[in-house]
Here is the input.
Amino acid sequence: MIEKEVLGGLLDHKKVAVLKTLYFAKGEMYLREIAKKSGVSVSTVFRILQELSAIGLIRVKEIRMMKFYGLVRNERSRFLEGWFKEPSLLDFFVENVGGMDGVKRILLHGKLEENRANVILLGEGVDDARVKLICEKIKEKGFDLSYLILNEEQFEKLDAMGLYAGEKKVLV
Here is the structure.
């Protein structure tokens, strides 16, 4: 998180807006479209696109009298993934629940689906009401997160019985 803040402070906010617009674009865009979506003036966007093209982050496609611009997806632009990628709702859950008193581990049970996940919280004295509130906030955003709170001994016994067979991934 600190790296994002430092880089954001070093770069011009207009350049960041243009880069972000191109990063989330579904394909190439024309100059005025980039300006409108980024909230940056056309002349400034043109200058920024020339700079980004010169360092190999942007490709320019000319079709007759029109120019289309797109982000080049290669090793030069790969760092943008970590910079612009919004944390997932599962990441939000882990960040907010992982530091709670009593939580020792958080396991993803089964596969993470596009709009659904199952987690097992291992620990003692975990505040169920607070976890439920966090899950309700997540559900409002269209992601269904089911959870179960167990202590280590309960989990080991249930796992030995085969009740929690299948893929498990440690999140915290």
Notes: The longest strand covers residues 116-123. The domain at 2-84 is CATH 1.10.10.10 (Arc Repressor Mutant, subunit A). The chain is about 45% helix and 25% strand. The first helix runs from residue 2 to 10.
